[in-house]
Design brief:
Layout: E1 11-14, H1 21-51, H2 58-86, E2 89-92, H3 93-126, H4 131-134, H5 137-163, E3 172-173, H6 180-185, H7 192-225, H8 230-258, H9 267-290, H10 294-309
Parallel strand pairs: 1-3
Antiparallel strand pairs: 1-2
């Protein structure tokens, strides 16, 4: 087995999202705008939740962490992508492995955080009288600790297995980031172990949360249908619909990317799928969770009034 230190490749060239010159500059401004909106939206939600005590509940505790995760893993990916639109984008071997680690870490974190949020909604709607006891601060801390532990273990598994791969002369990555599939295509050694790690780790981190979330919302839907009040049903649906949209966007695109057979789909399709859960998702999440949320709207109004009058 060749070690990473024996690899003759010391840096990689990231080709970016497209190689069409006429699209480079327009796409640069589009994704720069997306990145700015992502930063402002998620940072704004973090500050808003932090400044308003009435938002210090389990639901907003998870939303606070979701915004932090989106901030971080968008920043791991997007700046390098923006560079690739303007010039030849090289990335040293060590930085590439670091990007892979943190990308995997934050993506897996989001998988389990969305699962925790689904469980929180299940308890809130199906067992409202037990909500404060079931979703105590200790339980929330344990759920978040488990989320970050799973993220660390999954990221370590992917990164360590990638470090064993030997790269010869090929160093051009047909992607805008150091992701697993494009890196494995450059390998001049067997990638069976890596493919097994991807299948097991990604399978666990997508299938287990997906089943848990599906079960939670099946029970929630069953409970909502038994609510006699039209207003009550509408409020319950409104509470859950935002989370369902975020779940479908994230899990759908990531499952397409990692759980399909190796030959299936083109590189272009892989890039588009990756864009959805690495760039578009983090931008949309603050709006998905806040535009129809009266608590967030009221908190924003109060905070702005305080700042204006002060």
């Amino acid at each position: 087995m060749a070690s990473a230190n024996d690899s003759s490749v010391t840096e990689f060239i990231l080709l970016g999202l497209t190689q069409q010159p006429e699209l480079q500059l327009p796409l640069f401004f589009i994704f720069l705008g997306i990145y700015v909106v992502t930063m402002v939206g998620n940072l704004g939600l973090v500050v808003l939740i932090g400044l308003n005590p009435h938002l210090h509940t389990p639901m907003y505790y998870f939303l606070f962490n979701l915004s932090l995760i989106d901030l971080c893993y968008s920043s791991v990916i997007t700046p390098k992508m923006l560079v690739s639109f303007l010039t030849v984008n090289s990335i040293p071997y060590g930085e590439c492995m670091a990007q892979l680690f943190f990308f995997c870490f934050f993506v897996i974190d989001e998988c389990y955080l969305l699962t925790s949020m689904a469980y929180d909604r299940y308890v809130a709607i199906c067992k409202p009288l037990l909500y404060r006891v079931t979703m105590s601060s200790q339980v929330c801390l344990m759920l978040m600790a488990g989320t970050y532990i799973m993220g660390f273990l999954g990221a370590m598994a992917h990164t360590v297995s990638m470090l064993r791969v030997y790269f010869c002369d090929g160093n051009i990555i047909n992607h805008y980031m150091c992701d697993i599939p494009p890196l494995l295509r450059l390998s001049c050694t067997s990638t069976h172990v890596n493919e097994l790690v991807v299948f097991i780790v990604v399978g666990i981190n997508i299938i287990v949360p997906s089943i848990t979330i599906s079960l939670s919302y099946t029970l929630i839907l069953s409970n909502i249908l038994h609510i006699r009040s039209t207003e009550g049903r509408s409020k319950a649906f409104s509470t859950c619909s935002s989370h369902i949209i975020a779940v479908f966007l994230f899990f759908g695109s990531s499952a397409f990317m990692y759980l399909k057979p190796s030959p299936a789909g083109s590189v272009g399709q892989e890039k588009i799928a990756t864009v959805f859960y690495t760039i578009v998702g983090p931008m949309l999440n603050p709006f998905i969770y806040s535009l129809r949320n009266k608590d967030v709207q009221m908190a924003l109004s109060r905070t702005l009034k305080k700042r204006v009058f002060s």
